Amino acid sequence: MTTEFDVIIIGAGPGGYNAAIRAGQLGLKVAMIEKRSSKKLGGTCLNVGCIPSKALLHASQLYEAAEKDFGALGIKTGKISLDHEQMLKQKDDAVEGLTKGVAFLMKKNKVETFFGAGEITAPGKVRITGDSETELTAKNIIIATGSDVTPLPGVEIDEQQIVSSTGALSFSSVPKHLVVIGGGVIGLELGSVWRRLGAKVTVVEFLDRILPTMDGEVSKQFQRILKKQGVEFKLSSKVTGAEKLKTKVKLTLEPAAGGASEMLEADAVLVAIGRRPHTDGLGLKAVGVATDKRGFIETDHFKTNVPGIWAIGDCIAGPMLAHKAEDDGTACIELIVGKAGHVNYDTVPSVVYTYPEVACVGKTEEQLKEAGIQYKVGKFPFAANSRAKTNHETDGFVKVLADAKTDLVLGVHIVGVEAGEMIAEAVSVMEFGGASEDIARTCHAHPTRSEAVRQAAMGVEGWTMQA
């Protein structure tokens, strides 16, 4: 077995496996270490995150559409019923196929994969403990260990009654009442899945609005849409304790600002208050790798303070998103071989894969006001978009924010069906330093939802034509 490499990558998630692929393409001798007990590559995203959640979001959306919307379109289906077991199976099949795909890509790019826990014992040395113990050496080590669920004091996760995002992917039956602690992306997506399948869903959020990192107008309008769909909200509230009964969970809630407590009973509870860097057991302290007070590894262009040790993805600063980790991994390898690797975090998009979707890139209005930047706004509702209206999918809008003097696009925010696809146009324009007029004067196919992006861009200069 080979033990000497050009680069060792600890972690086989989107950051790690894309770094491995790029390294293989550039002719480096690569070792990748994965400690997941299932010995499946792809990390949290592929195994218990992005991919399985989207499989359930897609299936549950079709289920609800068949139940509630098909009749109005002239489609008669008869009584709809849920095959719970098959819905979970098709989710698992998607994961299985894609993890095998990653394994194939490792072989294609001559990446040697090791299963076990990797620990850095010295610069250039990694010990793997698993079925057996192995020591690898390399000039460069990349930490790509991702993130883990942030725990909530007083609420113990058992992945049965009180679950993390992992357990929420595999409920054995649809809970009658699901309480979601946390009004962020993960909580709203998984809450949407089970609401569509018949659960009553209550979201408890510490702050005074959902999606607190997104544009305020977006979160406000999106909450109205979710409320119309049946999701209930308890904002400015905190969960201080949980009592597990035989078939129920009793939660103790208090106002975020303090005050009298109340009880909330649920069949299941999803804790989704965020994620934290996963760096335990890596030997960082022993080799002197610096971390900040929140546990993120401190880096400068992916370099840690220890020569030859690099870090990417969720365990360093920046958006905790799979596609950001992918770009980190590619850029890190390119820097290692002397190329100009770079990631522009200002143009990393964020998407909430609910129905409708929410997507954004760049600055929010709140951020621009706080920075004292003068800006113009263009908005366009999907209610005035011909494709959305024809498809009975009129919820939401597009907002374009541009510099008041230069017209440089500073941010784009979309609430609407397929917003996650439409945001790519805005990302490209921003990456090339484009203006709102560049979008406004670019021909868009008709009828498409993307015309709403163009009309919003027109609105920056006050010449929206279709509303």
Description:
This protein has 467 residues and is α/β, with parallel strands linked by helices. It folds into 3 domains: 4-149 and 276-345, 3-Layer(bba) Sandwich (FAD/NAD(P)-binding domain); 162-273, FAD/NAD(P)-binding domain (3-Layer(bba) Sandwich), CATH 3.50.50.60; 356-460, FAD/NAD-linked reductase, C-terminal dimerisation domain (Enolase-like, domain 1). The chain is built from 13 helices and 22 strands. The strands form 5 sheets. Strands 1, 2, 3, 4, 5, 6 and 17 form a 7-stranded mixed beta sheet that branches. It has a 5-stranded parallel beta sheet with strand order 8-15-9-10-11, covered by helices on one side.
The main sheet comes to: 7 strands, mixed
The average pLDDT is: 97
Radius of gyration from the alpha-carbon trace, in angstroms: 23 Å
Question: What structural class do the secondary elements suggest?
Answer: alpha/beta
pLDDT < 50 runs, ≥5 residues: none
CATH superfamily of the largest domain, by name, is: FAD/NAD(P)-binding domain
The oligomerization state is: single chain
Described by the principal axes of the CA atoms, the overall outline is globular
Helicity level:
25-40%
State the CATH class of the largest domain: Alpha Beta
Assess the beta-strand content as a share of residues: 25-35%
If helices are DSSP runs of H or I spanning 4 or more residues, what is the number of helices? 13
